């Protein structure tokens, strides 16, 4: 690595020397150097200091490590669902193996489509997930570098987590140009206009999903978008696969638990052998990530536990007062709401964003519980929208400062009363 370090040092004078040719681009150079090496910044000799090895870069890397199981499963399951769908069409006589058109990576590696196995699953998954990651990181980081140059400040590592989150919460079949539009919208209007990293009101990754959902609804909803294909639309012609939550959404389903069991076992729901957004399906991988976040102290366990209790508790209370003849997701067992949809992924990786969530301890409990409550409300009452995690997190992001305000105000009142009694 010494030769690389020497090369970076030679380039430094082109960006940091006063009056140098590329002096205005020093934020881009610093971002590149920080990506390669640990920051070389040191504290001044005078003044109070906090000694800690965890800077923003390492905090973001910790979250990325927590998301790696979800990313690896997304690669695997994207390929698995693709070939299961194609085999289903072949068995139904709607397609033949000779008609299968391989993608760029499959063709490059000479993969077999007649009897696919683990290598074929991984190759197809990489074929879809790598472009999503490249577009997400390329567009988002490119915009952040431009704004850092304009502001003459360092490029923050805050987008490292958002870039991966975005790729994991969208359908693997989404067109790349639409993803680029969504990323640009969220980074510019949802983050940079507020001042950049640490100043955003809403979670940037969730804003991307919200923008895509309302701007390109056909590619973000329905039963056909959750299994990726190799044709121009990135879908498999003639195939549709509803998500577990969509299966039980209709009010005509009077016993959602029984209806869900006809299509998926509890093990499939837990381990993620179902169709849906690429990284949200495996609850097992999400729990692995949650454990890492809790052990590292990065994620708020109060928000996570509050969200789970709010979801399960709201579902339980709803069933107690459920009107006769009311069906759909309201008839699911309370714990099954954790196995369907993307709530568990959202409450672990997105609701715990320290920027857009409350800072007070009590506020985190309230915030998490309300996310769970609103999620159940949208799932069971809204007839058009099967999932409520996105809307609930964005709504509570907006109210996070208000929650903190009332928690602090209540604490001040209690302390005043205590002081008056002395």
The number of helical runs is 17
Major sheet description: none
Helix content, binned percent? 55-70%
Number of domains: 2
Keywords:
mainly alpha; 2 domains; flat; 422 residues; 17 helices
Structure write-up:
With 422 residues, the chain is mostly helical. The protein has two domains: 57-220, no CATH class; 247-421, no CATH class. The chain has 17 helices and no strands. The chain has helices at residues 2-16, 26-36, 56-91, 104-109, 118-151, 159-169, 176-190, 204-215, 217-220, 244-247, 256-263, 266-271, 283-296, 301-320, 343-350, 361-381, 389-421. The chain is flat. The protein starts with a helix and ends with a helix. 44% of the residues are buried. The model has no long low-confidence stretch (mean pLDDT 86).
